[in-house]
Inverse folding.
């Protein structure tokens, strides 16, 4: 990315909250736990930082306490900075915005923040895609193509359920978006929007101010779809590894996909690290009789039982003789002695007493809410 | 105007640790990795923070690069402060010339002006050589209650080991009445832990006198403590009964790591009320493979284990390939143990590659004469070629 073009990052932490309603009951999509030690926002945020974007605004709506706690001053992402840095943007009670209904209203609500940035370009991202994205070539391509909007997409094979929670692009030979389908009833290979966009700040300004005066709410429907042919919308194909989270089922699979070394190596790239909040846990401890196979283990875990095909977040305890299979156990979950737990997603601080048996299925994992004691 | 600090810590971290051989070729002893995700200096630093001491001068001299880089602005320990915090203090040039630190006392002497900036009542002197968890504030309360000029933390050691330490002889009140450095026939079993609290005004006086007396050693144990005793200052012992281990030798470093795996040894890193802090690497969680066998071990972020690991401490980013075996060993950050390699009773330094089929160390049972056996050590950044052998007691400091 050319050094003299300054880019502002804007992350929408609450978009798609409703797709995994259980996990977002007490938090934003951005603060949903993922992959043994991360929260979903770590992926777009680290991607931006690693792409040389040193000013990022995080737009929140509700339930954002865990998000604020996670991000803090932004130090872990090197965003605790005097120039630029991390800006948390909770809803700002504006005459016409307040609690926003769509992306355009949200942008209007934080317009004063965007206005003061000296960025030339703006990168927008949601928190529903787990990927390690280099935005530099995308911004370069946006500038070179003279596009009004550059939309990042991936060519993916989707089910009807996935498509119905996605935006799909029709793209012509020049790479221009010529058709925009929101929540279509289709399946198979298609160009799925990754909900990441590049615009010049000037263009965004006109868009947001005009949308406000016309009462437009949705970026997808009122801009991309309604103005497909008025604006030059270019598509940028992302070929890297990604998981799009559209449901509890896809959330579960997106986690489990990390047990595959090839996927891990594509997501966790040495010179483009994914940053997250430091918790100062000691190393994980494997006791006498521990049997661990094909699993990701966070620091601070104490394992004295059997763990297979699972993802254990930081500070999880698995008691003596317990068997954990195909599970996602989030931060500080305790599994008692001689329990049998399979296909379970446990939220933070779940305590499962001794000798319990809990079973979900792979296409319908059993979810246990935050702090539950069983 | 800022208020003064009641107590400032001065951490002596300039020592070479020559008895750690290859492990301290390029880094000072306090920077040597310990316990899976720590360096030795994390223990005194975390103790300071947990004891409410927020101003720490870290005196560095020998190979300070790794240490300076590691401590940085002190943020991982919450020691990045507007006033106070962690400060690395290497020797510096003055109008009168430039001098190395000539001893523990001289190192503090050369930094009197640093301490004076905080105008403290008390100074706690620490070293970066020991693994222990201790509340220095309790010791400070003892120092104040006894109205002492100097308080020395002591540990009750077995009589047969007493001659390895500086031994304090106390009266019934716990006042130190005599002091012997590594005595052949110890008169007491109270060993100095190298942790001192001084009333700063007193210490300053003795540091200046010591400096002006050219004949004297510039050392706490050899000069400052005996001088204070001779002059009749009040020196008291503060008994500590927790886990404390000097990690100055390869054997003791290995043992101190293995202690973490023994549930009967009271060093608990998992206590939420006394957290040990460290500079955390940015790495994904560890992955334990489908055919891996891992028991009785500590493993941390960024590791990729496909082989067998038993009774071992594995640091961040280590890769243990399928068919490799690591038992009773310590593997420091970033090292790779290739397929078919066997590592037993060994310490492997940072960023090493142990080639396929290589053999590092051996089990003590395989030796008829136990004196021939010892821990095998591979220094940092070393490549051990395929099928090479590193024997017990061998210390490797160049590629083999």
């Amino acid at each position: 990315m050319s050094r003299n073009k300054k880019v502002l990052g804007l992350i929408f932490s609450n978009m798609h909250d409703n797709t995994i309603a259980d996990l977002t009951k007490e938090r934003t999509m951005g603060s949903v736990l993922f992959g043994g030690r991360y929260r979903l926002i770590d992926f777009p945020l680290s991607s931006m930082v690693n792409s040389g974007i040193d000013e990022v605004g995080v737009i929140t709506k509700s339930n954002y306490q865990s998000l604020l706690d996670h991000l803090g001053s932004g130090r872990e992402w090197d965003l605790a900075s005097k120039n630029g840095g991390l800006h948390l943007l909770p809803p700002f009670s504006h005459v016409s915005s307040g609690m926003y209904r769509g992306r355009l209203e949200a942008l209007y609500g934080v317009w004063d923040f965007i206005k003061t940035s000296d960025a030339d370009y703006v990168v927008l991202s949601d928190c529903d895609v787990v990927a390690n994205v280099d935005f530099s070539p995308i911004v370069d391509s946006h500038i070179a193509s003279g596009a009004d909007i550059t939309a990042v997409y991936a060519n993916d094979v989707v089910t009807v359920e996935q498509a119905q929670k996605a935006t799909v692009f029709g793209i012509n030979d020049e790479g221009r978006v010529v058709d925009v389908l929101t929540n279509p009833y289709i399946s198979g290979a298609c160009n799925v929007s990754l909900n990441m966009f590049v615009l010049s700040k000037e263009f965004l300004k006109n868009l947001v101010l005009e949308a406000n005066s016309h009462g437009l709410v949705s970026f997808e429907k009122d801009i991309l779809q309604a103005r497909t042919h008025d604006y030059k919308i270019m598509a940028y194909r992302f070929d890297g590894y990604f998981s799009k989270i559209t449901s509890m089922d896809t959330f579960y699979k997106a986690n489990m996909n990390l047990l595959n070394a090839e996927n891990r190596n594509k997501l966790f790239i040495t010179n483009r690290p994914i940053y997250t909040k430091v918790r100062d846990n000691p190393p994980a401890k494997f006791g006498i009789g521990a049997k661990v196979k094909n699993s990701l283990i966070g620091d601070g875990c104490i394992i004295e039982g059997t763990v297979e095909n699972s993802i254990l977040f930081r500070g999880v305890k698995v008691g003596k003789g317990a068997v954990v299979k195909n599970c996602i156990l989030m931060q500080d979950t305790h599994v008692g002695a001689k329990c049998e737990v399979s296909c379970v997603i446990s939220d933070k601080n779940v305590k499962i007493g001794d000798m319990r048996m809990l079973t979900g299925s792979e296409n319908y994992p059993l979810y246990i809410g935050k702090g539950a004691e069983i | 105007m800022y208020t003064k600090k009641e107590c400032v810590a001065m951490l002596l971290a300039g020592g070479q640790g020559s008895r750690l051989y290859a492990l301290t070729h390029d880094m000072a002893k306090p920077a040597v990795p310990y316990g899976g995700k720590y360096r030795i200096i994390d223990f005194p630093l975390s103790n300071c923070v947990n004891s409410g001491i927020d101003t720490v001068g870290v005196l560095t001299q020998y190979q300070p690069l790794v240490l300076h880089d590691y401590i940085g602005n002190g943020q991982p320990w919450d020691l990045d402060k507007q006033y106070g915090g962690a400060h690395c203090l290497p020797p510096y040039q003055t109008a009168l010339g430039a001098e190395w630190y000539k001893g523990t006392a001289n190192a503090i002497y050369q930094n009197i002006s640093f301490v004076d900036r905080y105008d403290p009542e008390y100074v706690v002197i620490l070293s970066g050589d020991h693994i222990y968890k201790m509340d220095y504030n309790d010791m400070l309360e003892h120092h104040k209650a006894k109205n002492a000029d100097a308080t020395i933390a002591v540990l009750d050691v077995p009589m047969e080991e007493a001659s390895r330490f500086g031994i304090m002889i106390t009266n019934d009140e716990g006042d130190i009445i005599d002091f012997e450095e590594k005595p052949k026939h110890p008169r007491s079993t109270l060993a100095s832990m190298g942790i001192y609290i001084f009333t700063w005004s007193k210490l300053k006086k003795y540091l200046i006198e010591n400096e002006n007396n050219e004949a004297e050693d510039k050392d706490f144990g050899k000069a400052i403590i005996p001088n204070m005793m001779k002059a009749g200052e009040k020196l008291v012992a503060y008994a500590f009964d927790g886990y404390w281990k000097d990690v100055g030798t390869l054997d003791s470093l290995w043992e101190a790591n293995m202690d973490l795996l023994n549930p009967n040894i009271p060093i608990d890193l998992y206590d939420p009320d006394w957290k040990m802090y460290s500079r955390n690497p940015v790495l994904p969680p560890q992955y334990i493979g489908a055919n891996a066998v891992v028991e009785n071990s500590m493993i941390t972020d960024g590791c990729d284990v496909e082989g067998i690991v038993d009774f071992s401490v594995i640091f961040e980013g280590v890769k243990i390939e399928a068919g490799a075996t690591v038992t009773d060993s310590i593997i420091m950050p970033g090292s790779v143990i290739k397929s078919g390699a066997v590592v037993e009773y060994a310490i492997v330094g940072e960023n090493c590659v142990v080639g396929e089929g290589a053999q590092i160390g051996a089990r003590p049972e395989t030796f008829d004469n136990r004196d021939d056996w010892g821990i095998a050590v591979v220094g940092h950044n070393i490549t051990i070629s395929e099928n090479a052998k590193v024997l017990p007691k061998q210390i490797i400091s160049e590629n083999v």
